[in-house]
Amino acid sequence: MPVIRFLRESRDVECYPGENLREVALREGIGLYGVKGILGNCGGCGQCITCFVEIPDVGTAQALSPRTGVEDQKLRRRPDNWRLACQALVEESLVVITRPQLGLANKDTQLTAAMASPLPAGPTSWPEPVASPGDAQEFEPLGEEGGATGDEAP
């Protein structure tokens, strides 16, 4: 599975290819939002720009889906390696810095250490569902069994 290495939180999180970065982060308890974002985020529509993240390794451009038109518009005054987590789909393993507007103490040192241990490539597709014998249920046509026919004497 692709691994998202959240640098600020010092956590590696697995996800399926094509999963939304914001949803993965929230599911895993990763804090994407500052106070403004907690109080007024748009719920993943790309309108509030409070879920932006930094993707520090330029070589991982293919690790996320391409920037959307919403991102191009909303992030036009931000660095090119910032993305809206709600608009990005994870395709391959990558390193993410949450809340990059706050800065990160010893960022270069932490980034060098994070990049020193390689990220697993992960699978390229979702696992196939396993069918169990009870999945295919057969239904009997409705009949008159169990009901009164009206021919019986009271």
Describe the structure.
This protein is α+β, with helices and mostly antiparallel strands. Helices cover about 20% and strands about 15% of the residues. The chain contains four helices and seven strands, in the order E-E-E-H-H-E-H-E-E-E-H. A five-stranded mixed sheet has the order 2-1-7-4-5, with helices on one face. It is globular. The termini are far apart. The model has no long low-confidence stretch (mean pLDDT about 80).
Provide a short characterization of the protein structure:
The chain is α+β, with helices and mostly antiparallel strands. The chain has helices at residues 21-27, 35-40, 69-74, 107-116, and strands at residues 3-6, 11-14, 19-20, 52-54, 82-84, 89-90, 94-98. The longest helix has 10 residues, at 107-116.
Report how far apart the termini are.
68 Å
Assembly state: single chain
Mean pLDDT: 79
Structural class: alpha+beta
Strand content is 5-15%
Largest sheet: 5 strands, mixed
Report the total helices: 4
How many strand units? Answer: 7
Widest beta sheet: strand line-up: 2-1-7-4-5
Which keywords apply here?
154 residues, alpha+beta, five-stranded mixed sheet, two-stranded antiparallel sheet, 4 helices, globular
